[in-house]
Design brief:
4-stranded mixed sheet, single chain, Creatine Amidinohydrolase, 6-stranded mixed sheet, 18% strand, Ectoine hydrolase, 16 strands, 10 helices, Creatinase_N, elongated, hydrolase, EC 3.5.4.44, Creatine Amidinohydrolase, Chain A, domain 1, Peptidase_M24B, 402 residues, alpha/beta, 2 domains
């Protein structure tokens, strides 16, 4: 395996990942697997493109060389970014599924036990139906076989996630400074993305969430030109990204004096995060983390709820989501133990403070040999802007008044 100039990790990292995948294949009696999930493709080969809406697949035989099936335009990514020596490209006028079947037969896998990711977003049902019809017997669902390796990050991956954290933290700090009365949500989003990219970050799998005042009660809402008014708060969630690895955090800005209820919410979230970081270590279960989060947040006296899971695994991601929650979500009843190298976005956030405010303080951590560590250093306290308003240049777009 040789290293190409644009690869994220040394060849030894990919050799380990591929070797461990083949061990799992052998345990399941698989002669080959077909990988179509963009995150899994990058994990195994460093292949990435924004053109993943077109069919692409990596064939990994148990013993012989892997082969990439991809659109002709995207084959340059195989050549420039990955260690792969073999690829087969199809033109826009071609048939990707027939190319896949033809390649499997050329690899003498026509009568083999072949695994494929049945639940992959980018291997839709109609393509799977055509694949079954053309290939015949011997197909086995192997969804999750790559994720078994992804869930525990190596030291090299942790280093890359730290670079993502630096970028995300720079963006969040800039957004908190900009989140003042008189600014628009767009101003805040512009500050976040500019600082994040200038700090070395790349485009994240999800845009920053910027919501002010009553719009914070709308799930996953983000900037729409609304002007922030005196006395309002601003909810921010930012995912920093470097080489498709992500870390994420929530923070809150307040314009005007911090009310008693908002201070109570702030302190409860900070306390919960501190308790979570103290609890988390190898052997502690997912359920214990989820139960602690929910019991602490729902003990509040300000009318808030924890309306979601308590967190999720995080790492490699492409749009439309930065989380690995389909691998592990922090939910009650999941008795899986934490292991060294696992990484989580912890979410002790609060929906409905005073009945009309969503606020958040969150953290991304990695499990160590005897505990856990945060990727961040940014203060957790709400950012309070005492002045009531700030002057901004007039915009060509009039901010809506809802």
């Amino acid at each position: 395996m040789r290293r190409r100039s644009d690869m994220t990790f040394a060849p030894e990292e990919y050799e380990r990942r591929l070797s461990e995948l083949r061990q799992r294949m052998a345990e399941r009696g698989l002669d080959a697997v077909i990988i179509t999930d963009p995150e899994n493709l990058m994990y195994l080969t460093d292949y990435q493109t924004t053109g993943y809406s077109f069919f692409q697949a990596l064939i990994v035989p148990l013993e012989t060389d892997s082969v990439m099936i991809t659109r002709a335009l995207e084959e340059s990514n195989v050549i420039a970014r990955t260690w792969l020596e073999h690829s087969r490209a199809y033109p826009d006028s071609g048939d990707a599924i027939l190319e896949l079947v033809s390649t499997l037969r050329d690899l003498r896998l026509g009568d083999a036990q072949v695994g494929y990711e049945r639940n992959s977003y980018y291997f839709p049902a109609y393509q799977q139906d055509r694949f079954h019809d053309a290939f015949g017997e011997g197909l086995v669902d192997c969804f999750g076989i790559v994720e078994e390796g992804r869930i525990r990050k190596s030291p090299a991956e942790i280093e890359v996630m730290q670079l993502a954290a630096y970028a995300g933290e720079a963006g969040m700090a800039a957004g908190l400074r900009a989140a003042m009365a008189g600014a628009t949500e767009n101003d805040v989003a512009a500050a976040i993305t500019s600082a994040m990219f200038r700090a070395g970050g790349e485009f994240p799998a999800v845009v920053p969430y910027v919501a002010s005042g009553p719009r914070t009660m709308i799930g996953h809402s983000t900037w729409e030109g609304r002007m922030i008014r005196p006395g309002e708060h601003v909810f921010l969630e930012v995912g920093g990204c470097y080489r498709r690895y992500h870390t994420a955090m929530m923070r809150t800005a307040v314009n005007g004096a911090l009310s008693e209820s908002m201070h109570s919410a702030q302190e409860l979230m900070k306390q919960t995060l501190a308790e979570l970081r103290s609890l988390m270590k190898p052997g502690v279960t997912v359920s214990e983390i989820a139960e602690l989060t929910r019991s602490r947040i729902e003990s509040n006296d300000v009318g808030a709820q924890l309306v979601t899971r308590a967190g999720y695994s995080i790492g490699i991601a492409f749009p439309p989501s930065w989380d690995e929650g389909y691998i592990i979500s922090l939910l009650e009843g999941d008795e899986r133990p934490l292991e060294e190298g696992m990484t989580f976005h912890l979410l002790p956030w609060m929906w409905g403070v005073d009945g009309n405010k969503t606020v958040g303080i969150s953290d991304t951590v990695h499990v160590t040999a005897d505990g856990c560590e945060s990727f961040f250093t940014l203060p957790e306290d709400f950012t309070v802007h005492e002045s009531s308003a700030r002057s901004f240049r007039a915009s060509a777009v009039v901010a809506p008044s809802f």
